[in-house]
């Protein structure tokens, strides 16, 4: 790729060449050894300002966004950020591109995280996260670059991370919060781990527990089995979501990401950082409705349908009464909860 060309390039896909349009920033801005932050950003105006603020505090100096169906207001906000380079294309977010060897479908958004990042960040560190995922580093590291330099010294080129879903006391509580409230203030609770075990000889870890989502879905299934089966399909064995990812990777070093959750080689450090995943946030009902309408996520947005059902049936149910509930007070809280390693 010619970094001096300020216009669209193409990405090779099973459906042919897909032109990628440069919306703001320059391809030259991708040079440099500092760790870049990459995200596929839909129309999520609540998260983008909080996302940028969080990662700027972690020392990020260059954000690379792929924009998918943003509103005009969000589009204008993004292109006016001096530290953002943004791309887009005419390809729909959920377009099926083919199948992996295990039979799982991979879609355009998977390809962006797995393949576009390889094209953009050759020989460089990049953190690839969704816009509702906020990384937490072990407390002795103040910036992403500080942490990546440490990993370079260990000869490590990728690390795993648990996805930790934070939540409020009740689902209904989030309806009354303004969008100016940051997600860490809106949702301060999480369930302790561990969520998985990842041995050196396993490409995928062994799931143990899936946090608040698992608790919610088990409650839906036990109290409203008919509704549950209408969503999940009768006879289909529901599998809890994967609560891990491989978000931080030094590209071009012989390891590639697979569908965001795994890599071609298991990570040497399975819990090297943590991803606080804000599935629940002020106004989250709008994202749920959009995801259901678009059917663009796993099994036609099955999990969003289950969350919507939970919100309808028990909006005032206290989520914090479980023995596994913890209150977030910084990175060391996650270490104590067996969700982060002080490596």
**How many strands, what sense, and barrel or not for the largest sheet?**
10 strands, mixed
Q: Which overall shape is indicated by the principal axes computed on the Cα atoms?
A: globular
Total number of strands: 18
Which strands sit side by side, in order, in the main sheet? 1-2-5-4-3-8-14-10-17-9
Residue windows where pLDDT falls under 50 for at least 5 positions: 1-7
Mean pLDDT: 91
Task: Please summarize what this structure is.
The protein is an alpha+beta fold.
What does this 3D model show about the protein?
The chain has 343 residues and is an alpha+beta fold. It folds into 2 domains: 1-131, no CATH class; 132-343, no CATH class. Helices cover 29% and strands 23% of the residues. The protein contains 10 helices and 18 strands. A 10-stranded mixed beta sheet has the order 1-2-5-4-3-8-14-10-17-9, with helices on both faces. A hairpin with a 3-residue loop joins strand 15 and strand 16 (262-263). Helix 6 (211-223) crosses helix 9 (298-313), helix 7 runs antiparallel to helix 9 (298-313) and helix 8 (284-294) crosses helix 9. The longest helix has 16 residues, at 298-313. The radius of gyration is 20 Å and the shape is globular. Residues 1-7 have low confidence and may be disordered.
Structural features:
single chain, 343 residues, alpha+beta, 2 domains, ten-stranded mixed beta sheet, two-stranded antiparallel ribbon, 10 helices, 29% helix, globular, disordered N terminus
């Amino acid at each position: 790729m010619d970094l001096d060309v300020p216009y669209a390039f193409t990405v090779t896909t099973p459906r042919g060449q897909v032109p990628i349009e440069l919306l703001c920033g320059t391809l030259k801005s991708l040079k440099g050894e500092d760790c870049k932050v990459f995200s596929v950003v839909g129309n999520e105006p609540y998260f983008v300002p909080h996302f940028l603020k969080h990662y700027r505090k972690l020392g990020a100096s260059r954000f690379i966004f792929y924009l998918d169906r943003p509103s005009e207001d969000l589009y204008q906000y993004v292109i006016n950020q001096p530290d953002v380079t943004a791309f887009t294309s005419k390809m729909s977010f959920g377009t099926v591109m083919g199948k992996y060897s295990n039979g799982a479908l991979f879609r355009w958004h998977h390809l962006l995280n797995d393949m576009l990042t390889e094209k953009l960040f050759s020989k460089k560190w990049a953190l690839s996260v969704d816009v509702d995922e906020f990384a937490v580093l072990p407390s002795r590291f103040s910036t992403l670059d500080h942490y990546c330099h440490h990993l370079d010294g260990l000869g490590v080129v990728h690390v795993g991370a648990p996805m930790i879903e934070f939540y409020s006391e009740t689902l209904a509580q989030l309806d009354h919060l303004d969008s100016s409230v940051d997600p860490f203030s809106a949702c301060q609770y999480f369930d302790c781990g561990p969520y998985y075990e990842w041995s050196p000889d396993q490409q995928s870890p062994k799931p143990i527990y899936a946090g608040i989502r698992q608790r919610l879905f088990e409650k839906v299934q036990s109290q409203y089995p008919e509704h549950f089966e209408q969503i999940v399909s009768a006879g289909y064995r529901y599998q809890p979501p994967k609560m891990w990812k491989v978000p931080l990777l030094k590209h071009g070093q012989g390891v590639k990401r697979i569908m965001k959750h795994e890599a071609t080689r298991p990570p040497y450090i399975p819990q090297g950082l943590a991803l606080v995943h804000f599935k629940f946030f002020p106004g989250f009902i709008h994202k749920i409705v959009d995801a259901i309408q678009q059917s663009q996520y796993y099994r036609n947005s099955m999990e969003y349908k289950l969350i919507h059902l939970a919100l309808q049936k028990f909006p005032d149910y206290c989520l914090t009464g479980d023995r596994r509930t913890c209150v977030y007070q910084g990175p060391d809280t996650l270490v104590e909860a067996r969700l982060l390693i002080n490596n």
